[in-house]
Amino acid sequence: MIYVAFGGGVNSTAMLIGMFERDLVPSWVVFADTGGEKPETYAHVDEMDAWLKKQGHAGIVRLKKDSMYASLEDECLRKNTMPSLVFGWRSCSEKWKYAPQQKFMNHDEYALTLWKSGRKITRAIGFGVDETRRVKPSGDEKYFNWYPLIEWGWDRQACIRTIERVGLTVPVKSSCFYCPATKKVEVALLSIEHPDLFRRALQMESNATAAHTVKGLGRHWTWKEIGGGPETVEQTCMCFDGE
Asked: For strand 61-63 and strand 121-124, is the pairing parallel, antiparallel, or unpaired?
């Protein structure tokens, strides 16, 4: 009775591999799609879905928020704003990642049967030994929080080795291509590797009427001016990852 919120990144991928190697088969593997992940992430989700099915699993359940907006990007453009992390909030993650997963689980017949019988579901969260500061109890009567990577003593490098060992592609950092937590060097790389996505991010930035409170997607700097100006303090992406 294990639930995995699969983010499409290194830790959640290695966690799934380690679980199957220990005969710990999750009942649910769920990917919430904001509509703004990088092409490499979508390709990796497809690859992991195929790998799970080879192990005899039903595969990844893909979810999208039931909304009048086609995606988080569409919502930002139509509201003339940017992702909430720019302003120090995390409501975009709560609405586009957490809420769809919560709704799915709250309507899943197996989950409802377990909860009705008074049992809890184990929620596997992919924090490594280098992220122990993020560990916390569930605080939810429906779930236990479990941190398998910490239990196994795995850091990020151990996760990468695990992914390579089974012949899967090591995924890129999982986040929206316009995420405000993106580092300057990553923005520059995006402009080279995916100029179309970079242009869309710049459109969001220039379109935001709320930009007078912050400079741009970088909060204290704009993506348009990337490559110049002082370095800024790196933000941490707080997108929902199972906690």
From this structure: unpaired
Q: Indicate the domain borders of the chain.
A: 2-165
Query: Could you read off the pLDDT of 159-193 as tens digits, one per residue?
Result: 999 999 999 999 999 999 999 999 999 999 999 99
Burial class of residue 139, CB neighbours in 10 A (0-12, 13-18, 19+): exposed
**What CATH code would you report for 2-165?**
3.40.50.620
In this prediction the pTM is 0.88
Q: What is the pLDDT of residues 188-213, one digit of tens each?
A: 999 999 999 999 999 999 999 766 67
Residues contacting residue 112 through CB under 8 Å, at least 6 positions apart: 106
**Among candidate residues 208, 197, 187, the one with its CA nearest the CA of residue 76:** 208
- Spans of the chain below 70 pLDDT: 210-212, 227-243
Q: Give the distance from CA 206 to its chain's centroid.
A: 25
Q: 207 by DSSP, 3-state: which?
A: helix
176: phi then psi, degrees, rounded to nearest 5:
-60, 145
Bridge-based pairing of strands 28-32 and 2-5 is parallel
